Structures are given as structure tokens and as C-alpha cells.
Amino acid sequence: MTARTGDLSPPTVPEAGVAALDVRGVTHAFGARKALDDVSLDVPAGSFTALLGPNGAGKTTLFSLITRLYDNRSGAIHVLGFDVRRQPAAALSRLGVVFQARTLDLELSVLDNLLYHATLHGVGFRAGRRRAMELLAQDGLADRARDRVRNLSGGQMRRVEIVRALMHRPRLLLLDEPTVGLDIASRAALVAQVRGLVASEGIGVLWATHIIEEIAPGDRVVVLHRGRVRANGTYEGMLAQTGGEDLSAAFLRLVDDTGEAAA
Ligand SMILES: Nc1ncnc2c1ncn2[C@@H]1O[C@H](COP(=O)(O)OP(=O)(O)OP(=O)(O)O)[C@@H](O)[C@H]1O
């Protein structure tokens, strides 16, 4: 990991080979309840990493720490080598987020939503417009640019939220259970959209979910349960480690508190 702590000079281009996200030894409690317990994981650049965990596992808490909604008082979190605590501007400018709750302005057009976000990130109007139209075209949504968001389907809104998160060209994209409430076809389209981005733009993706079908061979998988990392590796490695015949069986073993496999 590149150590840049205490560096007040302007951020430079991250070194080749640095992880998109590196989380080391992070613990977070709400009062007496520990939501995260010594969590370590990484998202290599150009990878699709699934953060797989049942309800209450700690996924949203982890996202809140990475995005600085909460202050991480233990361990360290680096985005592209930048410490989110010590170099928040450099870290957050490289980060795109799609939160669990929908956050588009329903009364504005798709394009205005995108431009508003781009402006907040310091992207100029013309460059923002170009980027928005390029991304919408890639996603087959260019003809909806001037429609009010209210008139889109739930799946299309989610895809626009992903486009919005990419407006400032982040190198790490966090998605917190993005497919909640979508039908199977929309879910598949969304996963395909994000996998395409990993391939075409080489960004690192952390995709939080509890839906095993969204994970595919070749993915990296981190299993989180009751605030602890229960497995961290590849899809194939996770199957091998647990002796499960498929990923569902492997996951159930890992989150089975009565089994030794969960240790
Ligand atoms: N603001 C809060 N105050 C108190 N407890 C909280 C708070 N936020 C989360 N928790 C608790 O922390 C634990 C982890 O919750 P978190 O929302 O991070 O899990 P999650 O994996 O995102 O779950 P879900 O899939 O249901 O969204 C849970 O026990 C939850 O009740």
C-alpha cells in the first residue's frame, strides 16, 4: 500500500498497481453494538468485487465509512492510495457511489440530474454534457436525456444513478444493493452495465448484495456476516474452501454461526 499519510502536497496520479480500495482493520460500533469488527478487504483496480452479506451484516456501515458519512476511528481506508481520513478530497474525488436509497431529483430531467452532479464535482458544463451524452448513449438511454426522471422505470432510474456516479470519472465505484426492488430483467441489465464498465473503463467495483445470483465466476467475493469478514477471495476459491457444490451452499456454510466453517 502506498503510504501518503500526512502528505499535504497536491494529489498526484496514483501509482500503477495501487488497489482501487484498501480497507485495513476497521471496527465501528453504534453504542455497545459492533457493526464492523476488524474488517479488512481490498478491491483491485479493474475488478468486480462482490460484498456478500445478509441483512445487518454491516455493508451499509462500511460504505458510510468509505464515503466519510462516518469517521473511521480505527484502522485505515485508502481509495487509490489516498487515505480517506487524511486526504479526503483526493480520495473522494476518485470515488463514485450509488446508495441504497434512490437520490435522483424526480422533477428534473435526466440530463439536468447528471449536470447538477457533475457541477458539484467541478466538471464544466460543456464537458459534463459531453460526458453525460456519451455515457447515456453507451447505456442505450440517450433518447431519455430530456425526460423527467419521474417518467423512467425503476431499472432505468438505477442505470441513470450509475451514469451519474461516473460523471466525474471515478476509479472506484461503490454500489449498495443497487438491484433492490428491480425485476429479474432489470437486475440483469444493471449487473451487465456495471460489468461492462469494469471491462471498458478498468474501474474497481465494490457491489454490495445479498443476492447470490448476481455473482459470477471470475468475480472476487468478500463475505461479511455480523460485522466480520468470513471469506475473502475469488468465486472459485470460495467454492473450493468450503467444499460447497455451488455458491449458495458455500455462502450458507459461511454464515452458519453453528458451523466451524464460519470461524
Ligand atoms: N445508525 C445506527 N444506529 C444503531 N445501529 C445501527 C445503525 N446503523 C446500523 N446499525 C446496526 O449495525 C448493524 C449493521 O447494519 P448495516 O445497515 O450496516 O447492515 P447491512 O449489511 O447494510 O444490512 P441491510 O442489508 O439490511 O441493509 C446492524 O445490526 C444495524 O442494526
UniProtKB/TrEMBL annotation:
SMART domains: AAA. InterPro entries: AAA+_ATPase, ABC_transporter-like_ATP-bd, ABC_transporter-like_CS, ABC_transporter_ATP-binding, ABC_transprt_ATP-bd_su_PQQ, P-loop_NTPase. Residues 21-251 form the ABC transporter domain. It comes from the Bacteria. It holds the Pfam family ABC_tran. The keyword Transport applies. Keywords: ATP-binding, Nodulation, Nucleotide-binding, Transport. GO terms for molecular function: ATP binding; ATP hydrolysis activity. Gene3D superfamilies: P-loop containing nucleotide triphosphate hydrolases. The keyword Lyase does not apply. NCBIfam families: PQQ_ABC_ATP. Belongs to the ABC transporter superfamily. This is ABC-2 type transport system ATP-binding protein.
